From TrEMBL:
GO biological process, one term: signal transduction
Protein name: Protein kinase domain-containing protein
SUPFAM superfamilies: Protein kinase-like (PK-like)
Gene Ontology molecular functions: ATP binding; protein kinase activity
Lineage: Eukaryota, Metazoa, Ecdysozoa, Arthropoda, Hexapoda
Domain Protein kinase: 1-158
InterPro entries (UniProt xref): Kinase-like_dom_sf, Plant_MAPKKK, Prot_kinase_dom, Ser/Thr_kinase_AS
Spans traversing the lipid bilayer: none
Pfam families: Pkinase
Length: 185
């Protein structure tokens, strides 16, 4: 795994999603998978170029500015936390305070908002990809509705409970329904 990350980092690529479910066993070798969230640091994000705009004006600008802070060392941190969790079976206390988590949380709060308010044709997914409205069936749509109506201080709590504390489908459904109940006008 270290060789795979070393190779990526030499090419100035950041995987951004190193976790146990993305490490595959191939014979006696481990392989890194799922390059869907990878960022190429060779390509300069538009937000770091000189611009006349002092502040980001769209949600896309905010996401791009956050992505500009990502470094190869985040992959090394995620790999270390993954190994620690595999060895002990316990999530590390540092995973809750890492800069990676902070960026992911900030991007999540921004990305789940409606991209086109009039008509709501496209949204940004958790990973920043375009998601057609036809794919927004109940749990996703409920999360969208929630984040639109929840105050800023409530969002990290929902993010924590939904994405990190549990992977049990029933618990996620319960969180989603309670979130929607809170958000109803």
């Amino acid at each position: 795994m270290c060789k795979a990350l070393k190779y990526l980092h030499e090419k100035l690529l950041v995987h951004r999603d190193v976790k146990a479910s993305n490490i595959m066993l191939y014979g006696t070798y481990f392989k890194l998978a799922d390059f869907g969230t990878m960022i190429d640091l060779n390509v300069q994000p538009e937000s770091t170029k000189i611009s006349r705009k002092p502040k980001p004006t769209t949600k896309d600008d905010v996401v791009t500015r956050n992505l500009a802070k990502i470094k190869p060392s985040f992959d090394v941190l995620e790999l270390g936390l993954t190994f620690a969790r595999l060895m002990t079976g316990v999530r590390s206390q540092y995973s809750d305070y890492s800069e990676v988590r902070e960026l992911n949380e900030r991007n999540w709060a921004c990305n789940v908002r409606k991209r086109k308010l009039a008509g709501g044709k496209e949204y940004l997914s958790k990973r920043g990809e375009n998601m057609p409205a036809k794919m927004l069936k109940p749990p996703r749509m409920c999360r969208m509705i929630c984040v639109e109506r929840l105050p800023e201080y409530e969002r990290p709590k929902i993010f924590n409970s939904y994405w990190t504390e549990t992977n049990i489908l029933d618990v996620k459904k319960q969180l989603t329904s309670s979130c929607v109940d809170i958000c109803r006008p």
